[in-house]
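To assess whether ligand presence alters the predicted conformation, the chain was also submitted together with AH0. Input:
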Amino acid sequence: MAVGLMSGTSMDGIDAALVYTDGVRVERLGPSLIKPYSNAVRSRLRDGLSVAATSQTKDISAPGLAMLERELTDLHAEAVFDLLSVNNLHPTQIDVIGFHGQTLTHRPERGWTWQIGDGGRLAGRTGIPVVNDFRTADMDAGGQGAPLVPLYHAALLSRERRHQTVAILNLGGVANVTWVSFAENPEAPAIMAFDTGPGNAMLDDWTMLHTGKPFDEDGALSSRGLTHDEVLSGLMASPFFDEMPPKTLDRDDFNIQTVRGLSVEDGASTLTDFVVETIVSSQSHFPSPPDAWYICGGGRLNTTLMRRLRRRMPVTVDPVEVLGWRGGALEAEAFAFLAVRSLRGLPLSLPSTTGCNAPTPGGVYHEPHTIR
Ligand SMILES: Nc1ncnc2c1ncn2[C@@H]1O[C@H](COP(=O)(O)OP(=O)(O)OP(=O)(O)O)[C@@H](O)[C@H]1O
Ligand SMILES: CC(=O)N[C@H]1[C@@H]2OC[C@@H](O2)[C@@H](O)[C@@H]1O[C@H](C)C(=O)O
């Protein structure tokens, strides 16, 4: 049994999930929870991103970062304790924790990606072995270091087989898609993946700036606005969208300066349509069109975004819940699965998911140094 812990680019909190898996098949999903960050923690994480943005290397001695990493790690330990105690579980029942940490900055073009989170400290505090630093080995093998959830998506779909070809879209702070096709070989599906563009991050930043709320709840703000087509076209003119995959983004690669001057509602509407159009445009990179789209991540709860996306897509678009999956816990589940794969030396990424030069194992193991 493995626990996965994810602190995503939205910085809304820690997702924790239990998964029964051998790293190949997903036997069963255990309970999950979300431990939301306070506004103060969120703002310290934001500061951490700003400090890291000016850094040339992973320099944990940069102002405030060591303290932030300790605080973040201890909050993750609390999330583990909460998950275990609510479900009457003992740490000795858990084989491993997959600890993603918080991405401070992601610079694939410079060959580095930086997630903070002290694996040794988390292992010590929980008494459970920890795997962290999932992305470095992939980058060392020439990959983008992301996205890493595709092999988990494929494992879940292998239990499902509702369609021959499927697109799973994660609408987080950044959006990423996994295209999986069983058409050629039902036993070994073809997989490709990439970041499609910014997800909710710009809309979150815009909403926070103008309303003080962390996100556009249910897409209410966007639904009242009008989209400015010239601003949208300007945003879509970024060369990122024509680039061939594999390709990934940093949370702050796009920013809200582009919609400055629009009313709050029109800005929100334009940013929502930007997300929609980036997803529409992502289809041109698929080897063949999917039979259906399934959406996970917090953006699936934005009804305006989902409605507009459905209008623009030639096939069905549904939240992953219709498959019986948990759209809010999927990334945490994925890092539980990947931690088990890491223990077994199995690849976490493929040339077609990250651009690595061969299927690449990864992750760094930390012993708890306590008798279990
Ligand atoms: N009820 C809702 N209405 C609209 N948007 C929502 C709602 N609930 C969550 N969201 C959006 O989902 C975001 C959180 O999504 P999620 O937790 O999947 O992102 P993440 O995991 O942090 O990001 P990433 O996948 O990029 O690492 C929020 O910041 C918000 O934009
Ligand atoms: C560097 C980094 O943290 N990337 C995240 C981010 O959030 C979504 C998208 O960009 C994806 O590429 C990745 O996360 C998921 C968990 C992944 O690796 O699959």
